[in-house]
Design a protein that fits this description.
Elements lengths: L2 H14 L5 H8 L3 H13 L5 E3 L3 E3 L13 H15 L4 H16 L3 H12 L1 E2 L14 H10 L1 E8 L5 E15 L2 E8 L4 E6 L3 E9 L8 H15 L1
Parallel strand pairs: 3-5
Antiparallel strand pairs: 1-2, 4-5, 4-8, 5-6, 6-7
Length: about 230
């Protein structure tokens, strides 16, 4: 789990509960209390309204829950995706708490923003247990936005063999978190088939024109088809 994911997880837990002590947060995230205090200070410095003192516990003020519409779609989606990442490697109790926090977050959003947040979250897959390691760098933000906006991506790609293919053009469908990075699932325009690309192997990423959805080519459908192929091959 990255520090950003942990900070967002702490913010969501504080939003879902009345008060949390540092030792409880340390147990939830498998970190020291010293790290918890450092994370809480980072949240406070970024403007998150955390109140409390060591030993007494930490909470959000009651009026913090009266401003859910201050979240933009991108901000709410970032929280939602981070919670999904955390839940993929959390125990049952933490998963339930994160689910409750997300429900409260979404309940304060307008219908269009809520639909946008759910659409963005559905475009990212987190297989269980894959978020414990820090992912390698890659253009995650740009790719996520291209998935949302349905825009063609062009890039040079360094294959595992060491060979570079130039100007790969794809229609991005969604992302899958790996133990050590991110995988883009996309419709490759040169191969005219679904392909997967590691973000940390992409070079010179360019965002291009919009594309229309293909019948049977949605992210969930492609993932389901690949899982069915694996089952038949096993």
């Amino acid at each position: 789990m990255t520090r950003l994911e942990r900070l967002m997880g702490i913010a969501l837990l504080l939003s879902a509960r009345r008060r949390l002590r540092a030792e409880a947060l340390a147990r939830e995230f498998g970190i020291s209390e010293r790290t918890v205090y450092r994370d809480l200070r980072a949240l406070q410095a970024s403007g998150f309204p955390v109140q409390g003192t060591p030993g007494d516990g930490y909470r959000l003020p009651s009026d913090a829950f009266l401003r859910p519409l201050a979240f933009t779609e991108a901000e709410a989606a970032a929280l939602s995706i981070a919670a999904s990442a955390l839940a993929s490697s959390a125990d049952e109790g933490l998963r339930e708490t994160l689910g409750s926090a997300l429900s409260k977050l979404e309940s304060g959003l307008g219908p269009e923003v809520r639909a946008g947040v759910r659409s963005r979250r559905a475009s990212v897959a987190f297989p269980p247990g894959t978020t414990k390691a820090k992912p390698k760098d890659g253009p995650l933000g740009e790719v996520l936005e291209a998935v949302r906006a349905r825009q063609v991506l062009s890039f040079d790609y360094d294959a595992v063999t060491g060979k570079r293919s130039e100007n790969r053009r794809v229609e991005p469908l969604g992302l899958v978190r790996l133990p050590d990075g991110w995988l883009l699932v996309a419709h490759c325009l040169s191969r005219q088939a679904a392909r997967a690309f590691r973000l940390d192997r992409m070079q010179r990423l360019r965002v291009g024109e919009p594309f229309a959805p293909r019948p049977g080519g949605a992210f969930a459908e492609v993932i389901a088809a690949e899982e069915e192929k694996r089952r038949r091959g096993s």
